[in-house]
Amino acid sequence: MAAEERMGSLISLALLLIILNVDFIKCFNIDLNSGFIFSNNKPGSFFGYSIAINRELNSVIVGAPKGNEYKKGEVITQNEEWGSVYNCPVSEGSSNCELLNKVDDITQSAVNNPAGKRNQWMGASVYSDHKNVLSCAPRYTTKNSINQAVYLTGKCDFFNAINPSKIFDYEFKPCETIASRLTEFEMCGTGLSSAITSTRDSTEVFAGVPAAVLGTGKIAISKSGGRQTQFTPGTDTDFSDYMGYAITTGKFKKDGGIVIVGGAPRGDELKGKVLMYDSASPDFAMFSSQIRSPSQQAGSYFGASLGAADINGDGFADLIVGAPQYANTKPNQGAVYVYLNNQEGGLVYTNQEFVGTHEDGFFGYSIGSVGDLNGDAMQDIAVGAPWAGDKGIVYLYYGTKSKDTPLILKQTITPSDIKGGAAFDGFGFSFADFFPYPQKEEDTNNLDDEAYNDLAIGSFKSGNVVVLRSRPVITIVGELLIDKDTKIDLLDLSAETICQNNGESFKCIKNVKTCFNIPAASENQNVKYTVELDAQNEIKRGFLLDSNGARASTLTKTLTGVGSTEKCSAPFNIFLKNNTKDILRAFAVSLKWEYEEIVCPDKKICPIANKMLELSTTAVFPYVKGCSSDGNDECNCDLKVEMTGVIPGGGKDIALGITKKVTVVVEITNEGENAFINKLEVIYPQSQVSPTKVQIENFPGTVEWLPNVSGDSDVKTVGVVLSSPIKQNGIEKVSIDFSVLNVGKGSNVDFKATAITRSKEMKPADNVDTLSIPVTLSANLTVSGSVTPENIKWTKEVSSTSVVGPTIIHTFYFQNMGPSAAEKSEVLIKVPEKMGGEYILNIMKVTLTPGIGYTDNIGRCEDTKLNPLNLDLTKRNKTLKRRRREVELSTTVDCGDETQCMVIKCHLNMLKKSQNAVVKIESTLVEATFDKLKESRQVIAFAKFSSDYVKRPGGAEPDQVNVPLNVNSPYLKVEKQGEPIAWWIILLCILGAVLIIGLIVFILYKKGFFKRKKHGEEEEEELRKGDPDDDY
Hints:
By secondary structure, the protein is mostly beta strands. It folds into four domains: 30-38 and 45-470, Methylamine Dehydrogenase, Chain H (7 Propeller); 474-621, Sandwich (Immunoglobulin-like), CATH 2.60.40; 636-776, Immunoglobulin-like (Sandwich), CATH 2.60.40; 781-870 and 888-968, ntegrin, alpha v. Chain A, domain 4 (Immunoglobulin-like). The chain is 7% helix and 40% strand. The protein has nine helices and 69 strands. The strands form 16 sheets. Strands 59, 61, 62, 64, 65, 66, 68 and 69 form an eight-stranded mixed sheet that branches. Strands 34, 35, 36, 38, 39, 41 and 42 form a seven-stranded antiparallel sheet that branches. Strand 26 and strand 27 form a beta hairpin. The longest helix is centred in the last third of the chain and has 24 residues, at 983-1006. It starts with a helix and ends in an 8-residue tail after the last helix. The model is unreliable at 1-24, 883-887 and 1022-1032 (pLDDT under 50).
């Protein structure tokens, strides 16, 4: 029982469900309305699990491995699911099948072993060479007569289905006789796959034994009518490889010799591999090297299905390998790989891979070598997906001569597509292979005598087989009868190139015809055709006239009665639209055609157009472009771009707050031949400027432009359609106005212009130019200051610095006189603090306040050490002011080597025009220091107002100031009062002053000083001085 359970596990692998989802291609020559549908009406019998075509019987041989009846002579006997094999004749109106004689009735030993046949799965694989039938039961068991051990060896019945004689029939049991001697052959599974080859000299039988030698697997070969059995060598396989899980054969050798191909889906460390053996070699030497999975994906089951066919028609068999458990983006999608014969004793992987798209689809589980379905001498391949969709899908790949794409998917079939096939389930699980070694010309899969191979497909879940007939393929040759050398010259207005429509004149191509013929036509057919103008262009440059006289770019018509002799349509004209600018690209006229299908009577086969050929042609008409006569139709242009910036009022910079518009002028010069389909792209920073207007000098019509053709978030691109053509030595001058948005000092406004043409550009490097316009700010930053009091004297005989002296207040006014705003500015104040190491001023407080109307944060002053003498500021001496007449000339004290100053730095935020800030510095006079000196001093405080963000206009007021404080000594001697001045001296002085004032007034009057200025003159004068009335 252990052996039986292991064999059950093996067979279950053969029942992997397949689901596939790919784009459906519904068309080509397998007819879906006239199929022959068969069933044994035994639900659950797996009718259709395997199928083969027998041309001698003109029937389909069908395996039903869970069937429970067999036929001996004319007697039908029920059994315990031995499995059944049916013969289903293909003829008009027939859908009946009958049990095939000789199955399980070839030798007496088979008859006498009913226990061994219980659940043996007879019909799990069937094969036919059109005379003989090979039917296999991989779960057949034999019993050891000594120890009664049961061996799950499997067997195959080989018999002549035509001749009732059994003289050449035999059972093929390659493992039975050696199972009792070699334990590794106690479990073989003979016949899970099978094949027949025939030559003039012999017929050989092949059966896969994938469970032999602990799952290593082999292929068993029966020669000499079953009298000799051989196995393929095991040198290239290992335990659990399952070699022989699938087998196929073909003429892969130069001499036409046959090669046996076996799949080992668990080989190569579960990646799968395929091995090929030379059948002519006594020891079955390897042909070519092992074929390994291109995906190298473990568990893909590469080699679980095989197909051998001459898909490119070179006389050598090619190989198709399935990997039904391959996972790409989803588990178990499945894949099929294509290998071409290199005609040198090996195969070449074409890189052509077909991959399923459904999760758990197992695409490629079944592959059918179904022969040439369309009569082009290249064999075709069917791939089944028995559970795709809901009930299965079949994909038909047709052979071609292309090395890159030797197979092309041309038809997809689902059960619902087939008339009467909606109930099929498990559709595509099996196919009837084409027998590649015919002994007679009629040994084909053509069951309806229509000269084309037919397609047999099994649906074992529903218990159905359908034979689909191939439609005759007709080759239709079509052409546009037109002068292919015609060139369109828009300047040629001669009468033979002009057509009239609705009173309007057009350039045209006259007397065009469509012509067709069917070289091998036995009867005339109708051809449906379509003429299309400018198919690749969205904007059409021409039109046709339909039967109602309406304009159209596409016309579809039918030409009747087309046969082997060429037949043409009535002539027609092609109209070319006026004012066409796009003349660089040639004008194309395409013609497509197909066989106009008719509704076929039931069971009748109607032809179809050969869609393996390109059923279209295109005529191309270049425009005359006015290039040089060097024999080259392509214009070799040389566009050169130069870009300049124009600021209103002159200047080279954008003045912040003043400049509102900038114009970018791009000059495109063509130093080569005519340039066609041209455009200009100018990249600009969208946060700084925005395009408002585009002009092209001497441009006819409306300028086409878009403010952004790039879609970029940081920069945008103005796209401008230029003239077409830009003629040789021509100049295109484009002016683009930009409004100035948000620019800041220190940043440049950068532009990049590129000229693009469809003509051949000889020097692409000079098609690009860049422009960078600096942004500057112009602001008059002024500073003024004062000190309170201006004059002060200290108290005599103060000897301690702890005595709080008089209060001194320095006040500095910082104002932006415009015209631009100062985004950031700096204040630097220096106040003398020490002289000779001794404090002279004790600075106590620094205050920064905004001017009137300023609501934002004005800024801040950096921290400094205040009140360094730590004085009690509540005990201040009264400030002693001194009369001016008491002031004496004193020594200046400013920042220098012997005088140390406190440096105060303040950072101001945005100051617009006319806004200001005030810094007040409060200090006390250190009287003890001055009392030591006994002499007066002039203490000078310094302030500077500056900004890295603005530029000072010419003639601006000073941005720094010195503020003196006169500290006078209390030890000054008072001068004695002089004698009173006589009255007449005072009178003379007054009269002289009046005379001088009168003279000055007279001079000013003559100079026009007292004339009133007109409105606006004051503002104009202020602007000339660099101080316009702009608030920003």
